[in-house]
Amino acid sequence: MERKLFTALQGETAETLNNALSKQGFRRSQNVLYRPSCADCAACLSARIDVASFRPSKSQRRAMKRNADLKRRATSPWATEQQYELFRSYLDERHADGGMADMDVFEFAAMIEETPIRSRVIEYADEEDTLTAVCLTDVLDDGVSMVYSFYRPDQAWRSFGTFMILDHIEIAREAGLPYVYLGYWVPGSAKMGYKARFSGLEVFRGNRWQQVPDPAGVEADSHPLSTDPIAEQVANITLPGVRPAKG
After folding, report:
1. How many CB atoms lie within 10 A of CB 124?
2. Which of 127-136, 145-154, 208-217 has the lowest mean pLDDT?
3. CA-based torsion, 189, 134, 50, 48: positive or negative
4. Angle (CA) 202 91 185, round 5°
5. Do 113 and 106 contact (CB within 8 A), yes or no?
6. Cα separation of 244 and 132, whole Å?
7. Which region holds residue 183: left if phi is over 0, alpha if psi is between -120 and 50, else beta?
8. Distance (Å, rounded) from C-alpha 105 to C-alpha 127?
9. Cα 23 to Cα 65: distance, rounded to the nearest angstrom
10. Inter-axis angle of helices 81-94 and 105-113, to 10 degrees?
11. pLDDT tens digits for 178-200?
12. H or E stretch covering 208
């Protein structure tokens, strides 16, 4: 049974709160910040890449070369018909039975546009100016956070998922930001395995960020006592402008 700890993200403090909680394993979905808090396991680990420690592998360098023809453009978080058409083809091909499969154009627009913080839509177009990939990206005070990405499902040879992460590492480097936040990673999950192929990987575990030198050695924590009670989790969250309680 899935369970999440979440809080609203709104008002003048939204940006500060998002920055603070992103550093503690939270993710944004529209105007909500959440973190998995399942009662019976702690397998979902918030993951990020330390840009300074990242070194591309041979296959990752090949992925960059395969997509050298693509043009990157960063726009305001405003949904377009082109984006929605690409989004629908991506879902129908890759996630037809997923939780987002029934999203209509209005729900898609809400996903893109309902953001109370500094967000960008990163688009990638080919030489014919055809939209091929999109990533909704948040700009944090210590990095960029890849909120959601989608791409042309008929061009698997491009390795879009890998390429967009690589390009976001470059975006962070250009901006002088130390991290790229990837969302959640579940050790052993085939669908999320691509995240573990990046050097410089860190996960939020035990209430702190830890380096992952060998992803194959990380096991999903599914013990029923692996998750602290909700009251303890809340007590351990550091909020902006609030001093931690003295033990």
Report:
1. 24
2. 208-217
3. negative
4. 15
5. no
6. 46
7. left
8. 27
9. 32
10. 110
11. 999 999 998 888 888 889 999 99
12. strand 208-211
Contact 45, 187 (CB under 8 A): yes
Closest CA to 228 of 215, 217, 237: 237
**Angstrom distance (rounded) from CA 100 to CA 103:** 6
Q: Where are the domains of the chain?
A: 46-216
- Backbone CA torsion sign across 198, 28, 112, 170: negative
Q: Which amino acid is at 205?
A: R
According to the 3-state scheme, what is the secondary structure of 177-220?
Answer: CCEEEEEEECCCCCCCHHHHHCCCEEEEECCEEEECCCHHHCCC
What would the two tokens of residue 164 be? 């967009």
C-alpha to C-alpha distance for 134 and 122, rounded to whole angstroms: 6
d(CA 59, CA 71) in angstroms, rounded, equals: 21
- Of 1.10.1760.20, 3.40.50.10860, 3.30.750.200, 3.40.630.30, the CATH number of 46-216 is 3.40.630.30
pLDDT band at 84 (very low <50, low <70, confident <90, very high): very high
